[in-house]
Amino acid sequence: MKPSPAIAFLGPATCVVALLLVAPLGLLARYSLNKYDPTELMIEAATPANYLRFFTEAFYWDVMRTTIVVALLVTCLCLLLGLPLAYRLARTTSRWKSAMMLVVVLPLFIGSTVRTVGWMILFAQRGVLDSLSVWLFGLHIDLMYTPSAVVIGTLSVNLPFMVLTLQSVFEGIDSRLEEAAQGLGAAPGRAFWKIVWPLALPGVGIAAVLSFILGMNAYATPVLLGGPRFQMMAPLLFWEFNTNNNWPFSAALGFILMATTLLLTTLANVLIPRRYRA
Amino acid sequence: MRNVPGFSRRTVLAGVLAAPALVSPALVTRAGATETFVLGTWGGDYQRLQLENIELPLVRQLGLEAVIDAGDEAPRVGKVLATRRLPRGPLDVVCVQAVQAYALADAGVLEELTPEKIPNLARVKQALGTATFAPHIWSPQIVSYSPERVTSPPTSFGDLLDPRYNGKVGFPDNNFFYVMMAAGLFAGGSANDFVKAKEVMTKVNANGLRLYPSTDAGGPPFKTGEIDIGMMWLARISMWQNAGIPVAAAFPKEGCILYVSGMVVPKNAPNKEAAFKYINAMLDPAAQLGFARNMGYLPTVTNAPLTGKVAEQLALPDPAPKLIMPDFAVTTKIQPEIADWWKKSIQHG
User: Fold this and answer.
1) Cβ of A1 and B5 within 8 Å?
2) Do A3 and B213 touch (CB under 8 A)?
3) What are the domain boundaries of chain A?
4) What class is the A49-276 domain?
5) Structure letter (DSSP) for residue B218
6) pLDDT tens digits, residue range B271-330?
7) Closest Cα of chain A to B141: distance in Å?
8) Are B229 and B337 found together in one domain?
9) Do A9 and B8 make contact, defined as CB atoms within 8 angstroms?
């Protein structure tokens, strides 16, 4: 086949990815083996000390556990809320469909940090929710700087991604298959479970992985809504970089976070039966 | 390559070679008449006030324009250390706290600053600067409290341990190192007594300490009633008062740890002459008074006396409180260890 000139456009993108992603990762890997020194910043070495520090101190395990629990919880809630919404959006023939899609996409028009500031106004003491609760029930709600606030905030960031991914998955499944199942006597629920769900499963898996990765790497939401006492991996990494200038340990934390995310994502893929995988 | 239809090494390389032609107009820089230098500084209010009080009125007329490298302090310090062996560093003027300035001087990366290079240095309060550090602003750390809910003003750091304030004690987390020095001063009589500081901070933590993720986040809780007492800079108290937050300052009887921030010039700064001129303008009385008026920090020069409302807000009590300058030789070495302890025992405790 004759090469298409359009393929030439792959060159710059490939170079950009190689330069801006792979090269810094290589540099980071090298840094993670160096020794930390407050005056010298880093001393060239090839020591596993930074990785050993993480794996031998209970504190860091605890932070990793919190991070995984938050990411899993947010992913489950995203699936629970996103699945019906995405399915309904995909199947609706309403003339308002475009407007409904726009409502789902709208939060993505605003940066996640700015949206988090909105949550801060809602959750603050004497904020909107607290004042409403006092007015209605005479009870104070102290949500700010709590794990619940972090889960709600991260959920709000991830949900549009989940809904958009799932909606396109359901759009790709021919609705006539469900109609055929129902024509053969299956109730709508059974038709969904037996026909749509197995076909959608690979896409659902991808959407869940997307949400899980976003949850594992969440930074602004845990910092702003969780406060300094709520420890997750990305804020911890930044603390080491920004407070102590400990680049080697920050680099090691980055690789550990990346490896854990990759490992859990691969495990999730294994859990999906082979015949349903993408 | 053979397996991908239409994908050959030659076409990919052609794309790579053609790419600069598409982006080159964006790389054309503005050829200006003014000379530029790089100012590494904090963002936000501080950067804005630097522009309004130093650069626009005093530096631009010298034909100089600052290129801003805004960010947090630790990465800025890291950048100076990481580029120390390069003949031309990335920064000309570096804004740092005195604690970090000492650490950089200890590493031997700073240019010596003298009145011959910077004439206004002759009028700097000697106790605040060093041979390589030009102090810009300073403020004592005080006990902050709500005058509405705290009936008798606090007298020392020890008031944070009072069970009356259980769950009502709080301050911004990023001040932890200065708070630890204040705890050491209270419990052990020395800002360097970090053993006693750890003991007393553990007790403050048990008294329902609330930590806030940024300095700005530490003010509104006094208004909402979330906290009644904490530790803060006198400068911030005046800023919060001006913003309508009901908060007051009490000078601890054991003494106040001083916050001093200023500027240094790396030895490998590409435009040292411009850096010296900028620092000289920073020490100008008009620029110093501008920062006192807008940010509540005290001038570091002897020829910028405060007057009016600012003088009232920032006045030190009579008799004058003990003002304690951190022992930088100690702080430089112990800060990483204290940061690690704070993270594991106070934040996570």
Assistant:
1) yes
2) no
3) 49-276
4) mainly alpha
5) G
6) 999 999 999 999 999 999 999 999 999 999 999 999 998 898 888 888 889 999 999 889
7) 20
8) yes
9) no
